[in-house]
Structure formats: C-alpha cells, structure tokens
Amino acid sequence: EAQVTQNPRYLITVTGKKLTVTCSQNMNHEYMSWYRQDPGLGLRQIYYSMNVEVTDKGDVPEGYKVSRKEKRNFPLILESPSPNQTSLYFCASSPLAGSDTQYFGPGTRLTVL
Amino acid sequence: GQQLNQSPQSMFIQEGEDVSMNCTSSSIFNTWLWYKQDPGEGPVLLIALYKAGELTSNGRLTAQFGITRKDSFLNISASIPSDVGIYFCVGGGGATNKLIFGTGTLLAVQP
Asked: What is the layout of strands, in order, in the sheet containing B5-7?
C-alpha cells in the first residue's frame, strides 16, 4: 500500500532533550516536506527536500534540522526542543516539487514540557 | 511568509444542509487546491483547480477558481456526518512555487 509513515505518533519530552521524528515513503517520490500545524495558523512548512542530499528551509525552520540521505527517508531533528515547538507535525511527499497531490503522513503530536 | 485567509473559521450545521467556505489571498496563484483533514489524520486532496474561472465537482463537492486568481470557494451539498473535519484551501504555483495553506475551516455536522 502506498503510504507515508511517521514515528512516533505521540511524544512527550522535556526542554533540551534531542529528539528525532522519522518519516518514510514507499512511493519513490522525489519531493518530501515537513509541516507543523498549530490552531488558527493552518500548516506551515518547516523544511523540504527536492531530492536526495538536497534540502532547503521552509517558512519556519528555526530550531529544526533535516537530512535526506536516502530517497525514502526524511527525518526531522530537534536538537534542543523548546515548549514553543509543541505542535502537530506532518511529513508529506509528492512525485515532484510543486505537485498538487501531496501525500501526508498520519501526524506526530509532540509536547515539549 | 504568504498566507491565505480562509473563512469561516468554523461551522456547526445540521445534517442535510449545504455548506460554503472560501479563501482569499493578496497574491496570485496558478493552482487552487482543497484538502480535507479527518480527525487524527493527515490532509487528503479533494479537488484541484488549474484555470481561472474553472468550476469543478467531485460528488457533492464543488469548487471554483476565482477569475482574479486570488480566491477560491468550496461548496458541499447535502452534508452528512462523515463530512466532519478541517478543510484547507491551498494555493500553488505562486511566486515561490510552493504550496501555501489556508488557516482551515472546521466543519461539524450534527446528525
């Protein structure tokens, strides 16, 4: 089944403790992206990747890192999480950049205490 | 960054009623999309619009790409309980060639 998977689905952590949220897609898509969803703000793009080893900042990249060593995986790294990073995070992929059909993962709800 | 103004923010309606929501922007987009997010899930594409003035239907859903390319609306006819969720308008192909999400419309349907 074609899908985007994220892990973990829920995470509660403390300020400053490094964490990684994994994202994997099995559709051989070139483009992958991370969004955060906050009430009243819709989805805002954090980072995106046009292909392997090519990543770039989205609209709200501060406090986040990403890597794209393989086509299928695009982990989101929070080196030193802070409470303002408490949010719902979505990974998405699409065949090409700018494609209208983005396939979203199920989301990761992160709480930073 | 760019943002789309979506209204209303929320709607609470009775089953069977029609629903209308819209999205406006100060920027021009070449593509308008409508996504739906079910509770606890990621957004899923409902309708894609590619041409100014285009009117497209998908079952009980109808969406239009505004003539000015700065707005779009989505109508849902004869709502049912499974229409519950958050609806996002999305502008694409703008100056940054990225997808820009609206702030979302929360729809609740009372059986």
From this structure: B5-7, B19-24, B71-76, B61-65, B55-58
Q: Which residues pair with A92 in a beta bridge?
A: A33, A104
How far is Cα B86 from Cα B109, in angstroms, rounded to an integer?
12
Per residue in B38-71, pLDDT (tens digit) is 988 999 999 999 999 999 999 999 999 999 999 9
d(CA B83, CA A82): 35
Which residues are registered as beta bridge partners of B96?
A: none
Residue with tokens 């065949």: A95
Give yes or no for a contact between A110 and A87, defined as CB atoms under 8 angstroms apart: yes
**Closest A-chain CA to B34:** A100
Within the 59-98 window of chain A, which residues sit less than 8 Å (CB to CB) from chain B? 59, 90, 92, 97-98
For range A3-10, the mean pLDDT = 96
CA distance B60 to B79: 8
Task: For residue A104, list chain B residues with Cβ-Cβ distance below 8 A.
Answer: 41-44
Distance from CA of A89 to the nearest CA of B (A): 9
Residue with tokens 């006819």: B77
